[in-house]
Design a protein that fits this description.
Distance between the termini of chain B: 29 Å
Radius of gyration of chain A: 22 Å
Helix content of chain A: over 70%
CATH class of chain A: Mainly Alpha
Distance between the termini of chain A: 84 Å
Shape of chain B: globular
Strand content of chain A: under 5%
Strand order of the largest sheet of chain B: 8-9-10-3-11-12
Helix content of chain B: 25-40%
Shape of chain A: flat
Number of helices of chain B: 9
Strand content of chain B: 25-35%
Radius of gyration of chain B: 19 Å
CATH topology of chain A: MetI-like fold
Number of strands of chain B: 12
CATH architecture of chain A: Orthogonal Bundle
Number of domains of chain A: 1
Largest interface: A-B, 35 and 46 residues
Largest sheet of chain A: none
Oligomer: heterodimer
Largest sheet of chain B: 6 strands, mixed
Order of helices and strands of chain B: EEEHEEEEHEHHHEHEHEEHH
Structural class of chain A: mainly alpha
Number of strands of chain A: 0
Order of helices and strands of chain A: HHHHHHHH
Chain lengths: 230, 262
């Protein structure tokens, strides 16, 4: 193994890692935006919209991300969108991520205790206000761990973007391998870089969970006073 | 109780709630005057809580009407007998006049005691923040929690949480307060804290309907006690009468079982 070679290629791989992070984080955030919208529709919205949301989720989960990326790459220009490779990539990963995030967000929203909704209704809050003021802030805390997981998935899925030649970490590594045939060094460095990206983002989200959304959700067990049998 | 010709504040008429084939409450009729304090007692599963929850439509009745101070809650029957349902926003608007206190407190878990109380005035009544905070502080003082206003629900004892919940309901300046077994989740000491606050409210002539197993409270506070069994209102009478000389055999049996009557 050649340490000098590794040091020599590191700047190229670091630059490409930056693209990996940009694509993944942007897709996560856009995905959360649309995921929240569609997740809330799925929970509170008019019933006739539910099948569309469900169909979307089923489609995303049922097709490989590589196919989704190819589809975005070949079909977006066909409908007249002359987007850059980066934009196509963000679109493809966002499209994919929304499908998973809808389910994450729906599950978190539906996990909030029924008593919270009843208390909101009892003081005269409408269901959308209750969603915004009561359900969503509490559900946000529960969304963070699965969304962290989703971010890790996105970082790994972004490696598939190499098939449309986006110069992210995997593509950069492939290019170096193709010109030098030094597999081991490149693959080891790539693994370390992926690992570091995922690990540091995970730590960041743990911090968010513990320090920003740090209220404890009350789970008070209620008991009924036993009545003598009548 | 209609002694001075006053109109009732609340009229519940022929209210029935079925879960599948099972009657939770059957053909219940109830009238409550302004300032009147009503207590519902009866064995678990007798329909007291369901009746209470139907009054503000947290539970949608199968049939029957709820009328509060000039308007029907949830819906009404047309002259031709057809049912006209309230839109969600109509129902939401009407609910703000009915305060509710739950067995499990249901404080908003992510908000401080103060924010729990100000939320309704601010977001339902569109009150400016400053004014809402002032009212909330007065109410927290009233329930003896002014020093705990910054705490989250999880940092409060059950009794404190329930008193915040009472303040939260009062902040909407309701015409009617519903208490759904407010002390059933509390130990005797905390129960007394909460009952003391309810007693003060009762003395101020707050109109209230209380579902409870606290016979002592019913005896001391209630103008009328309703006894329910098997989804039916069996009888109602002032506590002095009901607890000493019930008319119905089922009431008598229940009171004997509770060691209230010999």
């Amino acid at each position: 193994m050649d340490l000098n070679f590794m040091i020599q290629i590191l700047p190229r791989l670091l630059r490409a890692s930056l693209t990996t992070i940009q694509v993944s984080l942007l897709s996560l955030l856009l995905g959360t935006l649309f995921g929240l919208l569609m997740g809330m529709i799925r929970v509170l919205g008019p019933r006739f919209l539910h099948p569309f949301v469900n169909a979307y989720v089923t489609f995303v989960r049922g097709t490989p991300v590589a196919v989704q990326i190819y589809a975005a790459f070949f079909l977006l220009p066909r409908i007249g969108l002359n987007w850059s490779l980066f934009e196509i990539s963000v679109f493809a990963l966002t499209f994919n991520s929304v499908g998973y995030q809808i389910e994450i967000i729906r599950a978190a929203l539906q996990s909030i205790d029924k008593g919270q909704h009843e208390a909101a209704a009892a003081i005269g809050l409408g269901k959308w206000k209750a969603m915004w003021l009561i359900t969503l802030p509490q559900a946000a805390q529960r969304m963070i761990p699965p969304l962290t997981n989703e971010l890790a998935n996105l970082i790994k899925a972004s490696s598939v973007l190499s098939i449309i030649a986006l110069y992210e970490l995997t593509r950069a590594g492939e290019a170096i391998i193709a010109s030098t045939f030094r597999y081991a060094e490149v693959l080891i460095l790539m693994s370390i870089l992926y690992f570091l990206m995922i690990q540091s983002l995970t730590e960041g989200s743990n911090y968010l969970e513990k320090n920003v959304f740090n209220f404890r959700t009350s789970r008070i067990k209620t008991r009924k006073i036993k009545q003598p049998a009548g | 109780m209609n002694m001075n010709g006053a109109h009732p504040l609340l009229k519940v008429k022929n209210l029935t709630k079925k879960f599948g084939d099972h009657f939770a409450i059957k053909e219940a009729n109830l009238e409550v005057m302004r300032g009147e304090r009503v207590v519902l007692i009866g064995p678990s599963g007798s329909g007291k809580s369901t009746l209470l929850r139907c009054i503000n439509y947290l539970e949608v009745p199968t049939s029957g009407t709820v009328w509060l101070d000039g308007e029907y809650i949830g819906g009404r029957y047309n002259d031709d007998g057809s049912w006209v349902k309230d839109s969600p926003s109509q129902l939401t608007k009407k609910r703000q006049h009915i305060g509710m206190v739950f067995q499990s407190f249901n404080l908003f878990a992510h908000l401080s005691a103060l924010d729990n109380v100000t939320l309704g005035p601010r977001w339902v009544l569109n009150m400016p923040k400053k004014e809402a905070v002032e009212i909330a502080q007065q109410l927290l003082e009233k329930v003896h929690l002014e020093e705990h206003s910054h705490k989250l629900p999880a940092q409060l004892s059950g009794g404190q949480q329930q008193r915040v919940a009472i303040a939260r309901a009062l902040a909407m300046n309701p015409k009617l307060m519903l208490f759904d077994e407010p002390t059933s989740a509390l130990d005797p000491r905390l129960t007394n804290e909460v009952l003391d606050v309810m007693l003060e409210l009762a003395e101020e002539k707050m109109t209230m309907i209380v579902v409870t197993h606290e016979i002592g409270f019913a005896r001391e506070v209630a103008d009328v006690v309703f006894f329910l069994e098997e989804a039916t209102i069996v009888e109602s009478a002032p506590p002095a009468l009901l607890f000493s000389d019930p008319k119905d055999e089922r009431t008598r049996q229940f009171l004997v079982d509770c060691n209230i009557l010999k």
